[in-house]
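Example (one chain per record):
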Amino acid sequence: ALALDGLSLLDFLRREHIDAELFGLLDAYCLSALGAPTAEISAYAGVNFLSEINAPIYAFPGGNGAIARAMAARLSRAGEGRIVTGAAVYAIEPAEGGYARVGWFDAQHPGEPRCLEARWAVVAAPYFFAGRILRGIDPAATARMTGLRQGSYLVANCCFEGTPQELPYDSWALGAQSFSDAISATAILPAAERPKDHGVLTVYAPFHDPGAGRTRLLTEDRAAFAAPIVEELRRFMPEAFGGARLAEVRLTRWGHHHLIAAPGIVTTMRALPKRFGNVLLTHSDGQGMPAVESAIVEARNAVEIIKRG
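Predicted structure:
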């Protein structure tokens, strides 16, 4: 199976004589789910993601945020005050005696850097960021981390008032220029639990050029982004409006939304060290595929390392 990692998904589709009429849909899917079209995605990662389309959908109440809440609750049970918010970490390095050293500062007092030592430091941050804060390790390793490509996109939560229409979980707008797909936030709920007087359509608008997308996200205003999305929603998904009124569009910028699983990504990530002394990299990037399942696998691996000492 790993032989597929050296191919682009587009090359794989052509090799398997997949109908070219599907390529537009698959490009849109990969751009939304993996940050780039089929020509720029590892066939291994693409087949992995596509194979889940026919599988059952499992969702936590409240989405993946449920995992974060469970982690926070467990930390609180171990002792109050263990989670420090409003703070930024600027440096992490292996320390003497089998410890790890962390440099950080309180956002309210950025001119007062602090340092602490711990038996272990678990870096649950994207590799492109981790590579910029790790100190005292092989520069070749951090160069590989910061050299990974990250996609960029905009998320528009379209809030409707009135009787919402029944929509599929995910709808694709082939030919749309401003977005790739839209997910009905309530589609996975049992019919009896769906709200009767309001609804939310989450629209994903990935940029074909992530770097240019980041520039736009920093410089353009909300109205300039929202207007074409709403216009094309009315054109490609008129049924979303039905008897409901679009009351608000809430935009969220994702300058670096996840790792682009380019050809060779699995091989690259397997060759990259994830432990530097007692500093552990623990992020979905380590699996080469952006998914919550990847994050869980990496977390379990880190737990086993810490337990073994």
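Caption: The mean pLDDT is 93.
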